[in-house]
Amino acid sequence: MLAVASSITRASVGVARWPTQSLQVPAAAASFSTTASRPKFSKGRRMFREWERRQGRSYRRHNDNATNYLTGRGGDRPFPLNPEFRSPRVLDEKARELVWEKVMREGETIKAVSAEFGIDIRRVAAIVRLKEVEKDWIAKNKPLAKPYSKAVLSMLPTHHINPNEQNAPYEPINEIHVHPYTMQQLFWPTSESRHFTREDAAKAFHPTLLSADKRVPHPELIQMEREVEQGRPVWEASERFKQAVMETERNAAEKQIAKAAHEEKQTTRVNTERFEFRFKQFNSENVGPKGRSRNVVGWRYGTPLDDRSKGHQIKIPISVP
């Protein structure tokens, strides 16, 4: 606000008059300083800066051959305040390339490679598919995110595979999921003289439940171990295992081809300029006991599922557990 100073001069006793010219006083402006304020750090930040200059100097740069966590070099616990969390190891780039060469170039089966390196079947299949995509991108001169991949792998514990040595397994490969039928408490009467096997246990839980020996991903490994226990040489049992898994994969491939051929035979295709229409023959009467069979019309549109039910359906048991 501008303040105009008006001074009153006393001319005579009891008489006051304004001066001919009033004094203009400049406005009082706020005093802003251009000097930078003093940096103020909290106690925690000051302690961190001090630690970074002394003990933390070794953590500025990561080690290319191992992790550089606060809990120790080469460890798998990145968070000091959460010791229960362990960072799982990942396969390095050379291990993935070796898996791809075993399957695609040397022609080994996925089960054989899984058993040799101790890698899950699904992971072996995923590595082969992703490697095929990578090779295709390289052939088409598409850019790859190699710097990003290298940076991520440098911060994680990795698993190396030496093709000329016996390597430690990367992960369990013959584990099975807990089936819901086996979660019930069951009392099954049997005679003491009878040898109760895993086959009998599976039938006790449910008539259609397979035993653990048949539900594992590698049932051929169990047979190989049995042959070794019976006195067969290890190399001969290993060769028989490779032949067995090759026969298994061949049968699975033949079934898949036959299924695809059957689906193609049952499908009528009508090509237009923009779309391809596919027609199949369905019997609307075969809808199952509840009318929600998964093999009839409407299964892909959510008909068999109760995701949108309002909770007023009466659930009547149709089988005795």
Main sheet characteristics: 2 strands, antiparallel
Query: Strand share of the residues?
Result: 5-15%
Uncertain parts: 1-16
* Quaternary organisation: single chain
**Spatial sequence of strands, sheet with the most strands:** 1-4
How many helices? The count is 9
List how many beta strands DSSP finds: 10
Q: From the helix content, strand content and strand pairing, which structural class follows?
A: alpha+beta
Q: Rounded to an integer, what's the Rg over CA atoms?
A: 38 Å
Order of helices and strands: EEEEHEEEHHHHEHHHHEE
InterPro entries: Ribosomal_mS45 (IPR021036)
Pfam family, one: Bot1p
GO molecular function: structural constituent of ribosome
Protein name: Ribosomal protein S35, mitochondrial
What's the layout of helices and strands?
Blueprint: E1 4-5, E2 9-12, E3 15-17, E4 23-24, H1 43-53, E5 68-69, E6 72-73, E7 90-91, H2 93-105, H3 110-117, H4 121-139, H5 146-154, E8 158-159, H6 198-205, H7 212-215, H8 219-229, H9 234-265, E9 267-271, E10 276-280
Parallel strand pairs: 7-8
Antiparallel strand pairs: 1-4, 2-3, 5-6, 9-10
